[in-house]
Amino acid sequence: MTASVPSIPSSAAPRLTDWTGRRHPPAPDARILSLVPSLTETLFALGLGDNIVGRTAFCVHPADRVKGVKSVGGTKQVNWQKVTAAAPTHVVLNVDENPKEMADEMAARGIVPVVTHPLSPADNGPLIRLLGDVFGRPDAADDLARHFEDALAAIAAARPVTESRVLYLIWKAPWMTVGPDTYIARTLDLIGWRTWAPPAAARYPEIEMTDVVLGDVDRVLFSSEPFPFTEDHLAAFRADHPDHADKAQMVDGEMLSWYGVRATESLSYLKDLADSASASRP
Question: Does residue 61 belong to any structural domain of this protein?
């Protein structure tokens, strides 16, 4: 979704104001269409499962409950007949995951867009509180947000002084990575892993997998999503780039790119990555 930058960042915005600057009156009886997988999970964690009337096919958590909510399509395209049948009053969207045209069409149909755009781990507290306040679960949101913020303070305090350069891969054919102005990059920075990207790159640039690039990084991280990298891709990389074979590593894309309630669990995953890296140093 391409959107104008709001006059104030989300982390400083009033609790009922979304990323676009729109202030939402509380709607505890809202019928929610969630088109962001990590936020579908967060809405369930806030106790709003009964309010969710639609989701995407990629909204797979919590697995034991989300199957009871009908899918209306994907994050980029929806089946408008299914949207109409679900009769939502609100739709939860994200700037990176959903096209602006979709948000505009939802609004034109009388469905209130609640737009999010977390750019760093620190944005998770305000994000959780936004959803909790808009949909009538402020106390649950405060509990989840405080738990996350305590964990974030702890991992930030333990950030190593020595940094590593990492190439974080999100796609193949073409190869794509993440720029520094992304949630993923700022998440990895919590453990001193600085993402490599071409100078003045877009947020999600295409790259050439060359020895020059690989020589400039300490690790090559193959994310499990959005491209479903597997151990077979690591094996192929090692065969093609034997001088850099030991740099290849699989990482859990959900843990490093999902925000909202997942972010607390992600911090534990980050600590495990950092501990493993430290233990493997000669």
Answer: yes
